[in-house]
Amino acid sequence: MSEAHVEARQGNLPHDPIHHKEPLHASEQDYSPQVLEQLRRDAAEVISRYPQPRSALLPLLHLVQSVDGYVTGRGVRFCAEQLDLSAAEVSGVATFYTQYKRHPNGDYTVGVCTNTLCAIMGGDQIYEEVSDHLGVGHDETTPDGKVTLERVECNAACDYAPVVMVNWEFFDNQTPETTKELVDRLRRGETVTPSRGPSRVCDFRHISRVLAGFDDGLADEGPGAGGPSLEGLRIAQEQGWRAPSPQEAADDEPDDTRSDVEPEAGEQQSSADTPANAPGERPESGGGEPETGTSGRDTIAGTDADGGKEGQE
Ligand code: FES
């Protein structure tokens, strides 16, 4: 950690970031005719997927980032023109979401989860040590332009806490040492493999184009869900539990518990009034025993037993 960093942390000096935070409209330079033509073609394809053009704003902002590396002033103007919005409306969205960068971003956004579970499992320590190791703070980029460090909120991967994301690919069960090694490898230009998902992490511009809706063919590569995420499914299969179909649930619902029936005074109104099952006690399935010849894997509603990559994008 540099002396300036230490003093800034102690509040003795104003912290001098590697890159100064520039206003969103910093770039006034127009796109070249070739780039603009390609952008317009891509934008038309994205817009055609939505019933209302303005619904395409989020992917178009990713598209701009895939070209410029962040949301530039010309990118804001481009989105506004394509979608018949004002620049203020586009800026309002671009400044709301942290995935849209207001200044040049590194090739790899390294997000350390410091939300509740990851924090207590070591996320705070990882962030502090990696920040010291790189000499940059939150939303700052290393001088070589390789790594932008961020604190990120819960990635819905708490079962692998503490979790680190690189361009939104998961690195599970991290420690300060493994994350420092990870950022060093990224800075050396080495290929790094996430814990789940594709065999390599792509750079920020590449992943921005994927987020804009242009498939790179990697979405189904590699494992999507691991043991801890599938533990509930394993237990359900072992016990022969299954979720009732919506029709079964409706048929089993007594008339006086239906939501459209007004409860009598003093009557139990919700499951919150009912004690939870004791540990090991089998919950009421409501749907009886599984049908003969039907496995729990096939019938547990809403569970991606094959470990799809849902939720990562
Ligand atoms: S708290 Fe970090 S993934 Fe949920």
Would you write up a description of this structure?
By secondary structure, the chain is α+β, with helices and mostly antiparallel strands. Among the domains are: 33-94, Arc Repressor Mutant, subunit A; 108-202, Glutaredoxin (3-Layer(aba) Sandwich), CATH 3.40.30. Helix content is 37%, strand content 6%. The chain has a five-stranded mixed beta sheet. Strand 2 and strand 3 form a beta hairpin. The protein binds FE2/S2 (inorganic) cluster. FE2/S2 (inorganic) cluster binds at residues 113, 115-118, 154-155, 157-158, 161, 163.
Which features characterize this protein?
disordered C terminus; globular; alpha+beta; binds FE2/S2 (inorganic) cluster; 313 residues; 11 helices; Glutaredoxin
